[in-house]
Amino acid sequence: MKHKSFYIFLGCEAIACMMLHFSRRALPQIFSSILAFPFEQTGILLRILSLSGSSGNLISIVFYSVICLVPVIILLLLSKKRRLYPEDALLAVLSAVLFAVIYYMINPGLLGKLFLMGQRVGKAMLGGIAYSVIAGYLLIRILRLFFTADNTRLQKYLLILLYIVNIIIVLIVFGVQFSNLLDSFEQLRADNKGNEHLLGASYVFLVLRYIVDAIPNLLIIPVVTSGQNLLSELSADRYSEQTAVCAVKLSRICGLALIITVLSTVGLNLLQLVFIRKLSVVNSSVNIPVFSVAFVLAALLLAQFIRENKQLKEDNDMFI
Q1: Number of CB atoms found within 10 A of residue 15's CB
Q2: How far is CA 220 from CA 168, 216, 227, 292, in A?
Q3: Omega prior to 216 cis, within 30 of 0
Q4: Cβ of 239: how many Cβ atoms within 10 Å?
Q5: Using one digit for the tens of pLDDT, what is the confidence trace for 256-303?
Q6: Which among 240, 216, 214, 251 is positioned nearest to 310, based on CA atoms?
Q7: What is the pLDDT of residue 25?
Q8: Which residue has the higher pLDDT, 313 or 200?
Q9: CB–CB of 230/281 below 8 Å?
């Protein structure tokens, strides 16, 4: 996939995430939680269909059964194509989980008996359970593919995995973190009723905090893209000059991303100190990016290793 086309896809994903959040606030009875999507909406549609009459109720039951049995159907299809593995049993577990999750989404009044914190939390937890089973199955399958693949396939799988990393990053920034920003707006208004006209600076700094928190995640995208370029060059010729250039470029991008992350945090903390009298909420943080430092060092070591290998091959070729 071309990087430009993939960036367009990531932009569409970001817009979709933000639209989903605004829909949740405009229609809270339909969009209560990101984790509940699309199970909640499926339950609402099935409930409307069920209450439309006896024939609608029958159709609703059929749709409910078919939707929940999809993982089992996939399991049966897989059994005809290849040998089943232990992790494939999670598909049957997922089917059972879907029966329970969608049933409670159809009948949200029953959630009060299970979750004392309300329907919204209950729906989010049910959706989280379903997603945990899906994620568990996918991760175990990916690990099996990794351990049984040759070098060429491993590079292909790693390239695909890097694309998935960028998709998850956008989901975190414009899904989870953007949701937290909107929630912080609501909490700020709730805590300062009658003083809304004094909250302008606080809103600005909440947005700045969101940007600073998002920067480390967003900077992973160019790092991953650079890693994909290096991986492509390694697949073509690990001893080429372009491979060494890509390795050096990756290490430099990692270092630049680390510097930007640290400086953005320091800058926001200093700005809050300057405008502290005008702020109703202050969030100071100390960012110690140990993982990022380790990643930069690993990238630098990789670049050095590739350069040394290239030099060693050139020396051997000259000797021959």
Answers
A1: 11
A2: 11, 7, 10, 10
A3: no
A4: 15
A5: 888 888 898 889 888 888 887 777 666 666 666 666 667 667 777 777
A6: 240
A7: 66
A8: 200
A9: no
List CB contacts of 319: < 8 A, sequence separation 6 or more: none
The answer to whether the CB of 105 falls within 8 A of the CB of 39 is: yes
**240-270 per-residue burial string, b: 16 or more CB within 10 A, e: under 16:** eeebbbbbbebbebbbebbeebbebbeebbe
Report whether 262 contacts 219 (CB < 8 A): no
Tokens of 145: 């593919």
Query: Across 89-190, where does the E strand assignment appear?
Result: none
Residue recorded with tokens 């329970």: 100
Q: How far apart are CA 138 and CA 149, in angstroms?
A: 16
Q: What φ, ψ does residue 237 adopt, rounded to 5°?
A: -165, 105
Based on the number of CB atoms within 10 Å of its own CB, is 286 exposed (0-12), middle (13-18) or buried (19 or more)?
exposed
For 294, counting Cβ atoms within 10 Å of its Cβ (0-12 exposed, 13-18 middle, 19+ buried), the class is: exposed
CA distance 315 to 317: 5
CA end-to-end span of the chain, whole Å? 40
Give the count of beta carbons closer than 10 Å to the beta carbon of residue 154: 14
**Token pair of 80 as six digits:** 């005809």
The dihedral built from the CA positions of residue 271, 273, 275 and 279, taken in this order, carries a sign that is positive
Tell me the helices (H) and strands (E) count for the chain, helix number first.
12, 0
Written as six digits, the tokens of 105 are: 């989404």
The two structure tokens encoding residue 86: 């232990």
Closest CA to 12 of 162, 170, 168, 222: 170
DSSP 85: -
